[in-house]
Amino acid sequence: MHISAIILLASTLLLGACGIPAIELPSVSRHYTPIKTLCPEGTLVRPATGLSTEEMEYRAKRKRVADEALKRWLVKTKDGFDVDRIELPTIGLTTSGGDYRSFLVGAGVIQGLDERDSNETTSGLFQALTYQAGLSGGAWLLSSLAGNNYPTVTQLKNVLWVEGFQNGLLQPGGSDSGAYEEIALDITEKRAAGFEITLTDPYGRFLSYQLFAGPDYGGNLTVSSITEMSSFTSHAVPYPVIVSLGVKTFSDECIPGPNGTIYEFTPFEFGSWDSDVNAFTSLKYLGTSLSNGEPLAADDCTANYDNLGYILGTSSHVFNMVCSETIHDSIP
Fold it and tell me: Which family does it belong to (predicted)?
């Protein structure tokens, strides 16, 4: 679908959300809206001088599980492989951008690597991964896996994806599902709570209807809540990293430059290793106003801002391309 069609629809929802009196807000707060909460002690920002304590702990425990899986795969692949006398590597897998094409190709790759879902010679290598990353369409795939507690690709295809994709991005749940009203209410309450809304809000919610189960279709699902899921707490899955490219709109950029800043969203942190940022902050409290890395008030932290649909939408946010097309078309 052409990007202008998505923008037109999303803009319509945003305009509806801005007219707050026209939509009756629910009496109970909807889960998509960020909330205010108590702050943890100390700073929420750290310099990018190494991995966080939480990631190092997960990495170490996951690596032990992954090493055993890699040993099984090596022995299965070649008889007599002496797996106890070698130092096993840390393995990561990433799925590139490319919207539904990268999503579906990446899903096929993971299915072929997953010993729960394949009898191919490559099956078992997914269990040997310590890290898994994704950008744009690859982030959709990673988010759908992680946000649903890592079922198999076949399970996701049969239970979610076939039905979700057949209606298209702009008809989530079919034409009579009431999804438009639900999405508009999500956006309306977020704005009423004092948070800025952008095209990424409806865009991420539309995607969520295809990637997550009902009844709220990821409305109450945050990236930081992945840390509470059984697959994560048992270190049975690779550490997920959602990647996004920065666009310097303040410098009149429309698309990421050749050295665009690479941002990471993980279950514990958000930030970048690149020199113009070189810092990370706690993802759970994303959206909190800070001074020198510390909250302005002990009872004024923001939570729930890291909605998984919003973050995967951020990873694939290409609406600034319209700016580029407009500038190109205006050049004689």
Answer: Belongs to the lysophospholipase family.
Return the pLDDT at 161: 95
Retrieve residue 61's tokens. 């425990």
Which candidate, 103, 313, 104, 105, places its Cα nearest to that of 201? 313
d(CA 118, CA 103): 18
| Residue pLDDT, tens place only, 48-100 | 999 999 999 999 999 999 999 999 999 998 887 888 888 899 999 999 998 89
Where the chain has pLDDT below 50, the residues are 1-2, 4-5, 8, 17-29, 326-332
Say whether 4 sits in a helix, a strand or coil: helix
In the chain, where the domains are located: 35-327
Q: Which residue, 207, 241, 224, 209, is CA-closest to 287?
A: 224
Entry pTM: 0.87
> Structure tokens of 277?
């940022």
**In sequence order, which ranges of 162-293 are alpha helices (DSSP H)?**
162-166, 179-192, 200-211, 230-233
Task: State whether residue 47 is helix, strand or coil.
Answer: strand
pLDDT in the model for residue 74: 93
Token pair of 2, please? 């052409």
Residue 16's H or E segment, with its range, is helix 3-18
Q: How far is CA 230 from the centre of its chain?
A: 18
Per CATH, the number for 35-327 is 3.40.1090.10
> Do the Cβ atoms of 219 and 308 come closer than 8 Å?
no
- Nearest CA among 56, 125, 116 for reference residue 88: 125
Tokens 């952008």 belong to 198
